[in-house]
Recover the amino acids of this structure.
């Protein structure tokens, strides 16, 4: 006979045991990890490990095809939960309904072309597809397939259908595929999928209706470098972490994201198109091109105000007994002001950043008026402030006179507050789906 209070130590999915469920089972975010039959299934083991080690209760639901790549014993050992592909297992617990009902998020990684088609058309021939139909939480798909399969009109239509219904479909990465092929369709970095899922969970119920779905947003990040000679440059301390946080959070809110990365040594966020630039002139060219069809542009990169007037094609040598020649500087283009003044479409929102060391708000207000953008994110910086840190604090100033302080905290939290302000101002969706 079981002792009182221990009579119902059971799985956190599908059991209605009332008070007998453990506190840990109640408090842990419940993640369903669906795995479909692609070679990238082995990479999902890394995603599973990150989820479990960070305190999530994960139930893995593979397809029969997925078990050809990774066996049920592996999924069960890594998750600590039983694994099944069949609706007929443990029928009395109604798993084909309960698993989806009790989840906080469902992640299908990898999602094959076949799985995307089944999900888009509401087919339910195994436990995973049944779970997708019963889930009322956010659903994330991380596709992985050959380029031709991803680009096929049928797959693209299925993806558009899923996004239209509120599902979050991560854009696949570009790189080496099965065999010798290379192209778009590669499974994104599991660490970045984990960050994506973490942001979705952080938004709670709001993530089920992604408010940036159908929007194209452009984010710049990092710091430009202006070459002096082949080995030296004028640069700044920006790490790019705030811009990358903006890109991640926008993707998790359903946006199509173009990230203009200026010398940032950070992994590509999952589902984000990354364009690498070096100098302010290169950033201007990339920003004007990307902004042509964008709903919002957020210029978080630290752009050099000046560049050397001349570039030495050989390394500048130190000469004994001689002081170095002065370095003449010329102004770089004002990218933020240009984007604000010449917007390619009505309703486009432009956001700038102001890194200040003194008179922060006064200088911020003056810059906001001078640049002509809709929002300006003002923060105090210094050698030990903001640059390279995982945290930030700022004030979001609006051209309408608004002022929104964001307290010290993770850069993702500031990023979400910025997108909240953008969503309030952005025009109607142009490129839905």
């Amino acid at each position: 006979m079981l002792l009182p209070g221990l009579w119902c130590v059971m799985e956190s999915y599908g059991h209605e045991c009332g008070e007998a469920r453990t506190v840990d089972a109640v408090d842990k975010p419940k993640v369903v990890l669906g795995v479909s039959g692609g070679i990238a299934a082995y990479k999902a083991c890394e995603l599973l490990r990150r989820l479990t080690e960070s305190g999530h209760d994960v139930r893995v639901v593979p397809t029969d095809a997925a078990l050809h790549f990774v066996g049920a014993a592996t999924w069960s050992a890594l998750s600590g939960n039983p694994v099944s592909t069949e609706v007929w297992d443990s029928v009395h617990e109604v798993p084909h309904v309960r698993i989806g009902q009790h989840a906080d998020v469902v992640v299908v990684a990898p999602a094959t072309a076949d799985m995307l088609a089944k999900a888009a058309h509401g087919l339910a021939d195994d436990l995973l597809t049944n779970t997708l139909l019963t889930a009322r939480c956010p659903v994330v798909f991380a596709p992985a397939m050959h380029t031709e399969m991803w680009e096929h009109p049928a797959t693209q239509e299925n993806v558009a259908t899923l996004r239209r219904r509120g599902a979050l479909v991560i854009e696949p990465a570009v790189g080496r595929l099965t065999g010798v092929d290379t192209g778009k369709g590669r499974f994104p970095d599991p660490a970045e999928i984990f960050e994506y899922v973490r942001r979705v969970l952080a938004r709670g119920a709001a993530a089920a209706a992604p408010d940036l779905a159908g929007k194209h947003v452009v984010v710049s990040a990092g710091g430009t470098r202006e070459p002096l000679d082949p080995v030296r440059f004028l640069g700044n301390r920006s790490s790019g972490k705030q811009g990358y946080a903006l890109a991640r959070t926008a993707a998790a809110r359903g946006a199509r994201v173009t990230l203009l990365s200026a010398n940032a040594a950070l992994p590509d966020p999952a589902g984000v198109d990354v364009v690498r630039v070096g100098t302010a002139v290169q950033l201007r060219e990339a920003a004007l091109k990307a902004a042509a069809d964008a709903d919002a542009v957020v210029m978080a990169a630290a752009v050099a105000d000046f560049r050397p007037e001349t570039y030495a094609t050989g390394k500048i040598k130190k000469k004994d007994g001689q002081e170095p020649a002065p370095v003449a500087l010329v102004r770089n283009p004002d990218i933020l002001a240009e984007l604000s003044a010449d917007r390619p479409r009505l309703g486009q929102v432009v956001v700038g950043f102001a890194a200040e060391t003194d008179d922060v708000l006064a200088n911020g207000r003056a810059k906001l008026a001078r640049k002509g953008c809709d929002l300006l994110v003002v923060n105090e910086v210094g050698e030990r402030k903001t640059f390279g840190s995982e945290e930030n604090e700022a004030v979001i100033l609006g051209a309408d006179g608004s002022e929104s302080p964001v307290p010290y905290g993770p850069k993702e939290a500031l990023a979400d507050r910025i997108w909240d302000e953008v969503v309030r101002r952005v025009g109607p969706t142009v490129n839905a789906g």
